[in-house]
User: Fold this.
Amino acid sequence: MKILPDWLKSGYLRLIEPVAEGLVRFDVHPNTITTVGTLCTIAGGVLYGLGHIRAGGWLLGLTALFDVLDGMVARRTERSSVFGAFYDSTLDRVADGFVLGGLAVFFATRSEWWGVPMVGITVLGLVGSFVTSYTRARAEALGIDARVGLLQRPERVVLLSAPQAFFGLALHGLVLIAIIVLLTVSAWITAAQRVRAVYQGLQTEPEVPVRVLHDTTRARPLGARSRRRFIAKGE
Assistant:
């Protein structure tokens, strides 16, 4: 089950196609797109913290396309790189932290919106979003595809922007509260689904003994499968 259907994602990609072509034509570097998008997202998180929920939602919604454009431009200009992927993933975590952190500040400073309980739920959502991203990254380091689960990044971006843009604090804030609760629950479900996927993936591979590196100055490079087991042990 997915929150966003595939046809909606495909339609969105077709919609922003001209924007990607324009960026390629003007030779805009993908890392620049990533940086600008993150700065705009941080601004949206600040607006949330200040209580401008609808304005923050619109800003996040309009700048969410940066999440997709940097990858599109990188592929079309043949500038895809390991560092670019690392940089993008790192700034995604910064963006998530500011947006959910801004919402936590909003709830903490306004007791009429369920105050402390919602701060706790928002923080749980923030941790859940980090765990969701971490489990995928860790799985890929082990050579396992963990792009599974109810809530992936596109869905998370939509939940953090679209409802707020259209509804703001409608129904005495109940719409916003419902979105945060949904985000939190689905984030932890996704993390659990990915842990399960990694566990099942590892069961299909034969065990390989872990080489203990006592003398790192004389250690020889590990083979691909041995390196996978070495990483799996948390070294």
Summary: The chain has eleven helices and no strands. The CA atoms of residues 149 and 190 lie 4 Å apart.
